[in-house]
């Protein structure tokens, strides 16, 4: 099959590309960074250098493809995250329709249907194609964004580096605390990007007749249990994840100079996780859990943590 992978060499797209190439597919990876071309080609894939903001580029790249994996990279420089997400989704939908792509796998988030400004899944509803929406849990790799703060070097502005559908948290390394308006004993589904990539690879080869939604997770636990696993791996077994109110979180984001509308969206995302509704939806879908456990990832995290 001829498969297009968006997301450059990101946490999901790189292992996805490796898997698809190993299966014998003709893979093209879209990246906005020309410096990534050599690395992409080293994986056995072709590189298409351009922006997902360019509908003409997307259309030409998608033309003739059997399947497309579409993801929208988050931008925390946008004043209105929801408007940005909808623009990029519309670009995809227009290009996919023009190119006549028959199989599309779209990356979303496990709280997407609960957060108005984040949900762009409906943009793809009118395409005459087989569509699967991926809703992964909270990425293990989001913990990497918090290393400096765990060590006590950073400050609240570092919140801007934290990633979508993950650990939007404030950390104080001196006290060994994780903070957010979800946390504590809230139960969360965490997921390895490798398990997500494996799930996407499976979906790209399927052809469901109706739009489907697939939740993806690796392990379910409370936020404090996750904090202990990460903390133990780095020699801070007392690490806790403190639950803030929505008001406290919003105030913290505003202090960090996060645009007001973006701050409100981020708080809404976390509140949806704290409510338990996202977990309820996950359980209703009865997905098969992935193979990579948080304790496995914690070893990789600790190695990176101690190198910094």
TrEMBL record:
Domain NAD(P)-binding: 7-117
SUPFAM superfamilies recorded: NAD(P)-binding Rossmann-fold domains
A Pfam family it matches: NAD_binding_10
Record protein name field: Uncharacterized protein YbjT (DUF2867 family)
TM spans (from-to): none
Classification via InterPro entries: Ergot_Alk_Oxidoreductase (IPR051604), NAD(P)-bd_dom (IPR016040), NAD(P)-bd_dom_sf (IPR036291)
């Amino acid at each position: 099959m001829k498969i297009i992978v968006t997301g450059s060499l990101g946490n999901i797209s790189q292992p996805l590309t490796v898997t698809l190439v190993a299966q014998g597919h003709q893979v093209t990876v879209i990246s906005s960074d020309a410096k990534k071309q050599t690395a992409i080609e080293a994986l056995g894939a072709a590189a298409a250098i351009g922006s997902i903001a360019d509908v003409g580029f997307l259309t030409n790249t998608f033309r003739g493809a059997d399947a497309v994996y579409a993801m929208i990279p988050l931008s925390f420089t946008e004043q209105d995250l929801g408007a940005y997400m909808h623009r990029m989704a519309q670009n995809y939908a227009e290009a996919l329709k023009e190119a006549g792509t028959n199989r599309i796998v779209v990356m979303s988030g496990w709280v997407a249907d609960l957060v108005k400004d984040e949900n762009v899944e409906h943009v793809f509803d009118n395409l005459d194609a087989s569509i699967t929406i991926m809703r992964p849990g909270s990425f293990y790799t989001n913990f990497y964004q918090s290393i400096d703060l765990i060590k006590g070097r950073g400050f609240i502005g570092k919140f801007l580096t934290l990633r979508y559908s993950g650990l939007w948290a404030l950390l104080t390394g001196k006290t060994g605390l994780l903070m957010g308006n979800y946390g504590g004993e809230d139960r969360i589904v965490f997921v390895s990007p490798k398990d997500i990539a494996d799930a996407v690879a499976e979906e790209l080869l399927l052809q469901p007749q109706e739009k489907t939604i697939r939740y993806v997770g690796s392990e379910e636990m409370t936020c404090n249990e996750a904090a202990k696993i990460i903390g133990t791996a780095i020699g801070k077994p007392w690490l806790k994840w403190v639950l803030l109110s929505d008001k406290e979180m919003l105030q913290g984001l505003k202090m960090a100079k996060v645009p007001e509308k973006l701050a409100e969206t981020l708080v809404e995302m976390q509140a949806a996780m704290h409510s338990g509704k996202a977990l309820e939806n996950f359980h209703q879908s009865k997905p098969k859990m992935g193979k990579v456990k948080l304790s496995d990832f914690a070893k990789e995290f600790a190695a990176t943590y101690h190198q910094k």
